[in-house]
Design goal:
mainly beta, 1 helix, 10 strands, 14% helix
Length: 195
């Protein structure tokens, strides 16, 4: 029985590694910050590692209770400045929730508002994103939403460092294991690199 558990972990890790290697081009590809696409659009990208502590969690057929477990997520967002302060981004990531071992790949849409033009200086920003978890193989479906605030720290090394605090709500669905969807509301922080 222990061998079967080890084998399942090994298979899940292989799937996660395959997804990571597929995502690497998206995580690492970037143009120089502020490089223009055409005459109007300016490209930007941010890759973050998120750490989440579940505040409330439970199945959809029950009231939410004090949360168990935590979450971990790696995201890569790629977007354009719609104005000098507003960025619209699309991205993907890998999401893991330790309570009941949920794993997912979210597709995310995000809006950011920078308090400094083109985020060319140290400064604050606020963000709102939402997305859908793809149900691929053993990965869980569902939705995700995030509301947060962050701070950009200029490094002049070709990238900037981002720090974020946020509230996040996630829903996981896996009809093969559970009849009802699983909801997790969390607070967290993220560390990122902005190009």
């Amino acid at each position: 029985m222990a061998w079967q558990s080890f084998r399942n972990v090994k298979v899940n890790m292989k799937k996660i590694l395959i997804i990571v290697f597929i995502a690497i081009p998206f995580l690492t590809y970037s143009q120089e910050n502020g490089e223009e696409i055409g005459r109007r659009w300016m490209y930007t990208s941010t890759s973050t590692i998120e750490f989440q502590l579940n505040n409330q969690s439970g199945f959809s057929n029950q009231p939410l209770e004090k949360g168990d477990g935590n979450g971990f997520e790696i995201n890569s967002m790629h977007g354009v400045f719609l104005t000098k302060r507003i960025v619209f981004s699309l991205g993907t990531g890998i999401n893991y929730n330790s309570n009941l071992d949920f794993q997912s790949v979210p597709l995310i849409v995000e809006l950011k508002y920078y308090f400094k033009k083109y985020s060319n200086e140290n400064g604050l920003y606020v963000l709102l994103n939402t997305g859908k978890h793809l149900q691929i193989g053993d990965l869980d479906g569902g939705q995700t939403a995030k509301l947060g605030a962050g701070y950009v720290i200029k490094t002049y090394l070709g990238f900037d460092v981002c720090l974020e605090l946020f509230a996040k709500s996630k829903t996981f669905t896996d009809k093969s294991k559970y009849e009802f969807s699983y909801n997790a509301d969390s607070f967290g922080f993220a560390l990122g690199i902005k190009l």
